[in-house]
């Protein structure tokens, strides 16, 4: 296994989409929501094109020293009037490959996103984590986040 | 007072920014975060330009029959890979003027956002509401939202 020091964070490419979907699907909540098929459903590739062309969205992956993708995170930088017109960063879809967990890769990804949001002038970074993901909540608190809000969702 | 039937939802204009900031500031949490001054701090107008030029963001206002702005809401449509590449809608900065509350204006705004997100192909609408806003949480549950997530924030 590669050491954490060899992990690099880079922008996701189209040929990473399959591995990313694999990580999204390998999850108690994702299992019922994703379709990990070969070939990959077109909707994933269309979504990749859309987000890759959006100047406010960055989908990044964590890559180990051998070039394998072992984590992902999406950061959106959003304008808004509140907090004196402060931009905010929204973190979504944070995943680490099952065989690489508890090695600091998630922390590297989130710290990257926080630094990136800060560098782009955000005064706030926010995210929603499912109420059952108690370990994730502890993880984010350790990184300085507060469980200050209720995250409400409506699925169609 | 205008009847709810006379309320229209329209895109916010630059000359609405002062009234919107007034609503953001007239709030237990907003009071400490906003600067309602005349002239308005430039940061609000710069943020308005940025969001108004972002094709994925819609800042809308509720206007009564006499043309007064009595509510606001921001909707962001975000691409992402999860849920089979589904776009999601993020609702932010929902406010109704203090003298117009409990008349269904907030509901009109949120229903507009849900319909708009749905029309743009979103499979999910999400929002964060401060844990102290218990009435807001009840309001969103009544509109079909679930308090499924913890909303975590990090302020710089």
Summary of the model, kept short:
The structure is a homodimer of 156-residue chains. The first copy, chain A, is an alpha+beta fold. The first copy, chain A, is built from five helices and six strands, in the order E-H-H-E-E-H-E-H-E-H-E.
Give a structural overview.
Two copies of one chain form a homodimer. By secondary structure, chain A is α+β, with helices and mostly antiparallel strands. The first copy, chain A, has helices spanning 17-25, 42-52, 82-85, 105-119, 134-142; strands spanning 8-11, 57-63, 69-78, 88-96, 124-130, 146-155. Chain A is globular. Chain A starts with 7 loop residues before the first strand and ends with a strand. At the A-B interface, α1, α2, β3, α3 and β4 of A face α1, α2, β3, α3 and β4 of B.
Task: Please report the number of helical segments of chain A.
Answer: 5
Helix percentage of chain A: 25-40%
Strand residue content of chain A: 25-35%
Q: Measure the end-to-end span of chain A.
A: 41 Å
Mean pLDDT of chain A comes to 95
Which structural category do the helix and sheet elements of chain A fall into?
A: alpha+beta
The number of distinct β-strands of chain A equals: 6
Oligomer category: homodimer
Largest interface: A-B, 65 and 65 residues
CA-based gyration radius of chain A: 16 Å
The global form of chain A is globular
Ranges of chain A where pLDDT stays below 50 over 5 or more residues in a row are none
Write the H/E string of chain A, N to C: EHHEEHEHEHE
Across the major sheet of chain A, the strand order is 1-2-3-4-5
Largest sheet of chain A: 5 strands, mixed
């Amino acid at each position: 296994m590669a050491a954490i020091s060899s992990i690099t964070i880079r922008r996701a490419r189209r040929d990473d989409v399959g591995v990313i979907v694999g990580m999204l699907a390998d999850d108690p909540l994702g299992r019922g929501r994703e379709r990990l098929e070969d070939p990959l459903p077109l909707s994933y590739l269309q979504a990749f094109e859309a987000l890759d062309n959006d100047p406010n969205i960055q989908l990044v992956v964590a890559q180990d020293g051998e070039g394998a993708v072992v984590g992902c995170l999406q950061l959106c930088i959003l304008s808004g009037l509140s907090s004196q017109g402060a931009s905010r960063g929204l973190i979504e879809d944070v995943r680490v490959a099952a065989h690489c967990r508890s090695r600091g890769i998630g922390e590297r990804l989130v710290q990257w996103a926080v630094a990136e949001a800060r560098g782009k002038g955000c005064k706030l970074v926010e995210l929603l984590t499912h109420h059952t993901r108690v370990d994730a909540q502890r993880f984010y608190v350790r990184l300085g986040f507060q469980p200050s809000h209720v995250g409400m969702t409506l699925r169609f």
